[in-house]
Predict the structure.
Amino acid sequence: MLNTQPHPQPEPVPFVQPKTEQINSGLDHRHLLGLSDYSSREIELILETARQFRDVLNRPIKRVPTLRGVTVVNLFFEASTRTRISFELAEKRLSADTVNFSASGSSVSKGESLKDTAQNIEAMKIDMVVLRHQSPGASHFLTQCVDSIVINAGDGAHEHPTQALLDMLTLSDHFDVFKGLNVSIIGDITHSRVARSNIHGLLTLGANVTICGPRPLIPIELDRISSKGSLRVTHSLESALEGCDVAMALRIQMERQGQNLFPSVREYHTQFGIQMDHLNRYKDLIVMHPGPVNRGVELASEVVDHERAVILNQVTNGVAVRMAVLYLLSGQNSTE
Ligand code: CP
């Protein structure tokens, strides 16, 4: 006999308001376009809020009603696995209505511009846009075309702020303070939005940052990226790892291999790839990577799988950080 009784629904788990008043309330920005102009107070507020959302994610029912009634569109003009899925999960965990847009299969293929695409989607009554785009500055541009709150999910080689925030949350799981922490960022700095956002965020919080890579992959205008704190450049991996607490390896963008930025992938791995020998010599070194990893290029395959590589912890923290960003930017201060 068919049971037509409704399934008992679990009671919604009440969301405990983050204790953000201890740090100060709210963000000073309407959008998250980058970390270059976010203060240490704002970054700390996002990290503290993310820690509280992480508690929600560890519950049996990983959902709170915080963004009920809020509509978020994930506008992705470029490929993504981690950022896209974790934004979507974060939105669902917050009970927002979510819509996913991919440039492929959309009217972009018929020549529709970013502005027209966004304005047409906004005409369907949305509140927030998460944008990944291949052009630096695309998210700034979007704020001039729409009234919705804009979150930059990576714009060309400019910034990827939520990646840097999840990196900083992961660092805070291993170290008590950022001040004086030695972080080496290794790889293709010139084309890396992850490097830029991390440089801004880490220097703002008082960490010492070393940039390391082949000369063609280090921007000559590095002093213009940030003048906030201790930023050092080296072209020697040994120098970057000596005394370093965290090595953050960046993806070598294989699509740029035709530009002769370094002799070969094998040579890059020999000179700048982190190997088991480095983990054996630097016993406290922690290894990070934003993904996707080219195994055997930036990191030896055994290093990727090593317990001191926290790559999957970074991915896990991505959901909580994006929940925190969505929550704080939405201006919601009540779950009622
Ligand atoms: N780290 C990162 O941005 O990965 P995806 O390109 O897969 O989103």
Q: What stands out?
A: Residues 80-84, 154, 160, 163, 290-292 surround phosphoric acid mono(formamide)ester (CB under 6 Å). The two ends are 40 Å apart (CA to CA).
